[in-house]
Amino acid sequence: MTRMDVVQSNKNRANDYVHEVYELVKKRNPDEKEFLQATREIFDSLRPVFSQHPHFIEHGILERITEPERIITFRVAWEDDQGKVRVNRGYRVQFNSDLGPYKGGIRFHPSVNSSIMKFLAFEQIFKNALTGQPIGGGKGGSDFDPKGKSEREIMRFTQSFATELSRHIGPDRDVPAGDIGVGKREIGYMFGMYNRLRGGYEAGVFTGKDPEHGGSLGRKEATGYGTVYFVEEMLKEKGLSFKGSTVIVSGSGNVSTYAIEKAMQLGAKVVACSDSGGYIYDKDGINLETLKQLKEVENKRIWEYTKFHPHAEYHEDCSGIWSVPCDIALPCATQNELDEIAAHTLVANSVKAIGEGANMPCTLEAIHLFQEHGVLFAPAKAANAGGVAVSAMEMSQNSMRLSWSTEEVDERLKGIMKNIYTSCMDAADRYGRPGDLVMGANIAGFLKVANAMVSHGIG
Ligand code: NDP
Ligand code: 2IT
Questions:
Q1: Which residues are designated catalytic?
Q2: Residue 177 sits in the same domain as residue 240
């Protein structure tokens, strides 16, 4: 065989392998729409990897990496304020521990199901690998809806959830953090329950703790800031910047708030944000102080912004936010919030860059459309890795029993986001798709985990 024949034969073998394993994953996980979407995206990127490194095929890496090491499902019973017994379902997906203890957030949202937990844990494996820190991938949560619940109900539910979760986690085993519906308050309740059950104080078992009680400074801001740092790197390459740009950010939770703050600090005008009820448009630029007061302090709905800024508009239907003309759009709310129709609208309005602050906020069709039209695209597992990166810094600080300053954490975060950007660009270059950050992120993250899996042997 000539060299060309060998290359072609490796290519065919890689394509067949990826196709066969995807069919297997579909068969084993029927109806798990989000999980199949996340695997599809990774698989589409990996063909050139298997063609260049056929030994990964012999090691069955794709079959193994798509099957969680462990999925824990449990009953969470609790009593509401009326004395009525309520039952929710709890999950912890411990997907991959080849690079370190399972690491990933806990989500409380009524939409939580096995597919959503698995897609989030799967994404987390590659995201965590990209940070370069020693952390594996996991995710957990419950279909509990915190909306409309009293403080005490939230505490009782969270404590009941943590009672079962506690037997499966630990500082060297599995280290949860926050996600949708879970912030420092819920982390505090879980941490308290864990320590009570253990009869001690294990600081590094949760991250995202209150900085007054063992948390890292800068963790709250890290995901949003990190997303903006990553997008700024991507813009720089094309001679663009946040300075003077018009930006829209979906959501108004933890990630959105600090993406808005950093974009503003870099000189952007952020004109719209949302919650699941609708979006606000403020042509003068959103007032961040009002936003924080409403959402962080008072837990109110976003429409109330217009009470304080009557010139701003409120529109029901949160997906309408994508019709607001902008240079940069940062989807920071939830999965599949930006579909092909929204992508068409953004492209028609000459959007220049998209940065995914949320996990898998853009559908595959939307991503393809952006790429076809030359819109710069920063994929979630790279762009929103700043949150978990600072979580891993929190683990280090807890182990060393010391705390770093806000400035020190922020400097490290900037360095990590820059490194992630460079490794994604390098991988995209090396595997034949220069500038394609989706492919670059998937390949760079995958290679780290796959090499560790090979070194750890099969079984
Ligand atoms: P929060 O709970 O703080 O905020 C979530 C925001 O998104 C709220 O404004 C919420 O509106 C909105 N939202 C939630 N679900 C929907 C929905 N189905 N449709 C429309 N809007 C919705 O969560 P975070 O900011 O922590 O998380 C946001 C995203 O970022 C998620 O995808 C999460 O996985 C991801 N992420 C979070 C990290 C973190 O450190 N927290 C790290 C990396 C990624 P409403 O209040 O009306 O529900
Ligand atoms: O999706 C995510 O990266 C998170 N929710 C944060 C995980 C973490 O462990 O900090």
A1: 139
A2: no
